[in-house]
Design goal:
single chain; mainly alpha; 2 strands; globular
């Protein structure tokens, strides 16, 4: 019966994976709002409802301010970039064709091209097929509005009364393990909060420094490339790789040395962020090994599509906490799932005696208690 319940639960999770991703995004948003709300409560002594409202208003104002400053020039640069991009693609396509004609290995790697087609056309078609399953359902039309409102509402409710939902989860745990489960939930919240804060800081640092560096190198559309770099950090490895190569490819017709300088700028910015900024803003529990991070992104892409790549790292961070606390510490290291919740001495009543304490004087064991009786 238990195995059947597990199978049905896994089947439900598989069929509802898109909605579970949305719920996880709502949890991340709730973690963000909770951090702001806790700060308002601690510093300004605001009631929690007013703290939540202040956090939402502050976030909206921040987005509006950034949008007011960046959207007009960003829109202009993105429009100009999209206007000249087709010509750049034709140049890159011609370079790829010459490379494929000169080197059979490159031709085999790029694959055949249909009559009237192009290499970039097939690449964009494949990328479009990745999004064809997730985007129309989750992020288009009326469904987008419904899901966006649902995510925001769930995040606000989770932030308003976190203890209510924590207690709902703890009720599903046997009473003797609820202290352990509560401790794990607290560590999960701390881990997600640390990851979210570090991620926002990394996005800001990479976007600002990339934009400034490209502007100094006089790369066209530096603001657009900087914003894209900041957003691309949401996808580990692949986002950084693509955001580093794209500006270099764009200036490649102006000269190989120029393109190399732009490429080195992207590498230096990412190296500084990874080795200077990240260790200072990320907590120890979210310093994930690179191999596991890359593997989690690939698995998430395979199972959940492009949207899974965005939530792959926080899901990995949550999974590591659960494996460490439930499997490594409780199973492999022998901690078990029946911890003694109190360090107070155990009192055992023996016939003819008022009571004996099984504590340090008795060696903490029944044989020790018997020795005390003989004495």
């Amino acid at each position: 019966m238990g195995a059947l319940a597990v199978v049905l639960l896994l089947l439900f999770a598989w069929k509802s994976s898109e909605l579970l991703i949305l719920f996880f995004i709502a949890v991340l948003l709730a973690v963000y709002l909770s951090a702001l709300t806790d700060w308002f409560q601690r510093r300004l002594r605001l009631p929690r409802p007013l703290g939540i409202a202040s956090g939402v208003v502050l976030t909206v104002v921040a987005f509006w301010g950034v949008g007011y400053l960046l959207i007009p020039p960003l829109t202009a640069q993105v429009g100009e970039l999209l206007a000249v991009l087709p010509r750049r693609l034709l140049i890159w396509e011609a370079d790829l064709v010459r490379l494929a004609e000169s080197y059979p290995v490159v031709r085999d790697l790029l694959g055949p091209v249909q009559e009237g087609g192009s290499y970039f056309g097939s690449i964009f078609g494949e990328i479009g097929s990745w999004f064809s399953d997730a985007v129309p359902y989750v992020f288009s039309g009326l469904w987008f509005l419904i899901h966006a409102f649902s995510v925001l509402a769930m995040a606000i409710f989770l932030t308003a009364k976190p203890s209510l939902y924590r207690s709902e989860i703890l009720q599903l745990v046997p009473p003797r393990n609820r202290v352990l489960a509560s401790d794990i939930l607290a560590e999960l919240a701390s881990t997600l909060r640390a990851w979210l804060g570090g991620q926002l800081m990394a996005m800001a640092v990479l976007g600002v420094f990339t934009g400034i560096g490209l502007y100094i190198l006089r790369v066209p559309y530096a603001l657009a490339f900087g914003v894209f770099t900041g957003l691309a950090v949401l996808v580990p490895f692949f986002g950084g790789l693509f955001s580093t190569i794209l500006p270099a490819l764009y200036v490649l017709p102006a000269g190989g040395v120029y393109a190399l300088a732009v490429l080195l700028l992207g590498v230096v910015v990412h190296v500084v962020e990874a080795n200077v900024v990240a260790p200072k803003v990320f907590e120890r529990q979210v310093r994930l090994p690179p191999v596991w991070t890359l593997l989690s992104v690939l698995i998430a892409l395979k199972l959940m599509g492009p949207i899974g790549m965005i939530v792959a790292v926080p899901i990995l961070a949550v999974g590591r906490v659960l494996v460490k606390r439930l499997y490594v510490e409780r199973v492999l290291e022998g901690g078990g799932f029946h911890p003694i919740l109190s360090d107070e001495p155990i009192v055992i009543t023996v016939p003819g005696e008022v009571g004996l304490t099984l504590g340090p004087a008795a060696g903490g064991s029944v044989p020790g208690m018997l020795e005390v009786l003989d004495a």
